[in-house]
Amino acid sequence: MNLSLIVAVGKNNEIGKNNDLIWRFKEDMKFFKQMTMGHHIIMGRKTFESLPKLLEGRKHLVLTRSNLKFPEEVEVYQSVEEFLEAYKDIEDEVFDIGGASIYKELLEYANKLYLTEIDAEDKEAEVYFPNFNKEDFDRTELTHFKDEKTGIKFKHVLYKRR
Ligand SMILES: NC(=O)c1ccc[n+]([C@@H]2O[C@H](COP(=O)([O-])OP(=O)(O)OC[C@H]3O[C@@H](n4cnc5c(N)ncnc54)[C@H](OP(=O)(O)O)[C@@H]3O)[C@@H](O)[C@H]2O)c1
Questions:
Q1: Which of 29, 73, 78, 157 is the most buried (most CB within 10 A)?
Q2: Is residue 123 very low, low, confident or very high in pLDDT (cuts 50, 70, 90)?
Q3: DSSP reduced 3-state for 108
């Protein structure tokens, strides 16, 4: 499977609080939309619940161990193994869009990591991106931005597995 991971991290690898994102930058939302549009996106149940609505133009896959009801457009998997088996022959790029637990569980299967590296921190963060061995990846800086509203700088970085 051609699995990529996409995430926005603060200086301490913080990614969320109150089951929500910490920062929302227009240019980062645009990047996320551009990268994932037309593709499959896999996420944990909590991240799914944090979405305001289904994201247009993308096939949603959700991991949950529960028997909760999901909209009929959503494919549900009860384990990572079940998902990997179902998607092992797919050619499309599948994006892991979080949250922390799904990043951690799928990191070893991902060939590309798209990180938005944000030059800010939040001591109240509750969830963090897992540590990964940067030596296993080639790092390319794709863009540099300064958010107009907050003045916070961020960049999009691709880590490609060697
Ligand atoms: N900064 C970013 O780019 C970014 C991106 C995404 C999310 N986030 C943030 O991350 C936070 C959510 O992360 P999280 O770690 O708390 O939750 P999560 O990973 O979104 O969801 C966790 C849930 O996924 C299900 N799950 C996890 N592993 C599973 C497995 N192996 N098999 C089946 N189901 C599995 C379980 O659902 P059940 O409890 O239903 O069984 C678990 O409670 C939020 O704050 C969100 O805003 C940030």
A1: 157
A2: very high
A3: helix
Given the structure tokens 């193994």, which residue do they identify?
81
Residues with Cβ within 8 Å of 143's Cβ and at least 6 positions away in sequence, in order, are 27, 31, 155, 156
CATH of the domain at 113: 3.40.430.10
State the Cα angle at 1 between 142 and 41, rounded to 5°.
65
Atom of ligand 1 nearest to the CA of 79: 32
The DSSP bridge pattern shows strands 59-63 and 75-77 to be: parallel
**Atom 9 in ligand 1: residue holding the nearest Cα:** 16
Average pLDDT over the chain reads: 97
Which residues have CB under 6 Å of ligand 1? 7-8, 15-16, 19-21, 43-47, 50, 63-66, 78-80, 97-102, 105, 127
Number of domains in the chain: 1
